[in-house]
Design goal:
Elements: H1 3-26, H2 28-35, H3 41-52, H4 54-81, H5 87-105, H6 112-129, H7 145-162, H8 168-175, H9 179-192, H10 194-221, H11 227-249
Keywords: Membrane, Transmembrane, Transmembrane helix
Protein name: DUF4401 domain-containing protein
Length: about 260
């Protein structure tokens, strides 16, 4: 069992657990925003750089940057499909849209700077294309954490088995397979309704601004700097943008309606 697989099998279910608890404490938008930070793709790219070399990881980071476009297609497809379909139908359509986007993006060979600008433009456009949906009132937390973690592990095994013997570029795309999106959004839809699933997806879009900065910084720095300093700089830049995007773009929670006072 290689290091990447071990990392995914231990890290992703743990993150699913922690982000689920955060979502129950602070809401689905915060959970989505947290899940978009490169806490999964980052360690995977680090492992690739140690196993395959910095040049391989730099090319993989370029593929991961472009994969953000496919994730945005996944998010929009799910958000719109969920207005007519249940969780299973919406997820099937979203995953098909993701696969089609990856197939198209595989033939795209844009300069790194152009790819970064296109990703940011797509992120801004996604906000305008998102359907409106109000998160449902929080009910009693479901005892589904073990199932979420198991689903994450099964998805990781499936994706890793399908991604064997891939080149650097396609490895980057599969580092961005929507494992966390699939698990978090699917269980949110089942447990709290469509509004919570859409709010979680919207929170993820906010987080992808920092993720894109991480990918472009890493792709540039791995060609010039040591692996450790390249990852440290990329994570530092991503964290700054991640927090700034949350402050600037995340919608504030709607205040609870105040009951009219009746005079005696």
């Amino acid at each position: 069992m290689n290091a990447v697989l071990v990392l995914k099998l231990t890290l992703v279910p743990l993150l699913i657990y922690l982000i689920t608890l955060a979502g129950r404490r602070w809401g689905p938008q915060v959970a989505g925003w947290l899940s978009a930070f490169p806490i999964v793709a980052g360690p995977i790219l680090l492992t690739l750089s140690l196993e395959q070399g910095a040049a391989f990881a730099a090319r993989a980071a370029e593929g991961t940057l472009l994969a953000v476009l496919a994730i945005l297609v996944f998010s929009l497809a799910y958000a719109w499909a969920s207005s007519r379909c249940g969780m299973a139908g919406s997820m099937a359509l979203a995953l098909l849209a993701w696969a089609g986007s990856v197939a198209v993006l595989q033939s795209a060979h844009w300069p790194l700077g152009l790819a970064f600008v296109l990703v940011w433009c797509a992120l801004l456009l996604t906000f305008k294309l998102f359907p409106s949906a109000t998160p449902d009132a929080a009910g009693k937390p479901r005892n589904d954490l073990p199932w979420r973690m198991l689903a994450a592990a099964v998805l990781v095994l499936s994706v890793t088995a399908g991604a064997t013997h891939l080149g650097a570029r396609l490895s980057g795309f599969f580092a961005m397979f929507p494992v966390m999106s699939t698990v978090l959004v699917g269980f949110a839809h089942l447990g709290a309704g469509r509004g919570s699933a859409v709010a979680l997806l919207r929170g993820m879009v906010v987080g992808y601004f920092g993720f894109a900065v991480f990918c472009v910084t890493l792709a540039m720095q791995l060609r010039e700097e040591a692996v450790g300093s390249a990852f440290a700089l990329a994570l530092g830049c991503a964290l700054i943008v991640h927090v700034a995007a949350r402050r600037l773009l995340a919608k504030p929670a709607l205040p609870a309606p105040v009951a009219p006072q009746v005079k005696a």
